[in-house]
Amino acid sequence: MNKVLELTQEQRKEMQRNAIEHVRSKFDNETMLAKTLRVYQTLI
Asked: How much is the pTM?
């Protein structure tokens, strides 16, 4: 936690941008739909 608190404003903004991009790439609607359908297909 201390390490994060010691980051500069720009470093925190970069971390934020990276986190947002990561979430958008891993959890967009199409990806989540495809994963859900795969789970449903294994159940039926």
From this structure: 0.63
